[in-house]
Design goal:
Elements (H helix, E strand, L loop, with lengths): L1 E8 L6 H11 L9 E8 L5 E8 L2 H7 L2 H11 L4 E6 L2 E4 L4 E4 L1
Antiparallel strand pairs: 1-3, 1-4, 2-3, 5-6
């Protein structure tokens, strides 16, 4: 599994409610996405940075999404270029399902 942290500095700070509304507008795009296990949207406490934390089944699944078109979508939606950090994720503790998952 691969975790990808996507972060971008916002041109203007957002409130939590503004971020929630914006995130809800894009969330359906990620439902049922092949290889995506889970996505968390986040907003910094100051409201000046936002992004997502994605858990993917594989690096190939992640790479199919983070294309030039996807980056253009993020720039259009948030007015800034996203930064991506890839992390190996060999074990996940899932307290909702009561499982420990490993690849």
């Amino acid at each position: 599994m691969i975790t990808v942290i996507v972060e971008f500095k916002l041109p203007q700070p957002m409130t939590r409610n503004q971020a929630r509304d914006t995130f809800l507008s894009t969330a359906p795009k990620y439902q049922g996405m092949p290889g995506l296990i889970r996505k968390y949207y986040y907003l910094s406490p100051e409201g000046d940075k936002a992004g997502g934390i994605y858990l993917w089944q594989s690096r190939a699944d992640a790479d199919r999404v983070y294309t030039a078109d996807w980056k253009a979508f993020v720039r259009g939606k948030y007015g800034t270029e996203p930064g991506l950090t890839y992390l190996e994720c060999p074990v996940v503790v899932d307290n909702l399902s009561g499982q420990i998952v490993s690849d």
